[in-house]
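Retro notes, structure queue

What went well: the backlog is down to a handful. What didn't: a couple of records were mislabeled last round, so from now on we paste the full input next to the output in the thread. Example, using Acylphosphatase from Vibrio xiamenensis:
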Amino acid sequence: MDIKSEKFQVSGLVQGVGFRYQTCHQGLKFGLVGYAKNLNNGDVEVVVSGDPKNVELFAEWIKTGPRNAWVENVVRESLTPTRFDGFEIL
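Corresponding output:
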């Protein structure tokens, strides 16, 4: 199976609103693995791996995120395909 890995750095109101939890839930819903973690600057870093089509669906979702969040900007970066054991909240 072909896998694609992407890193997203999400800024806006994304800490303290359940963003990482909802991101994990959405990633698993799309059959993806990876992690979501808070950064010291107030952003959230998300890395996902999985089917390229599902990574694209996730990329569309993360532009708005969960309803309690306010996404101001998303920086997207392709990564070397990486396998993870599930989806972690760091």
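Agreed that this is the format going forward. Reviewer comment attached to the example: The first strand starts at residue 4 and ends at 13.
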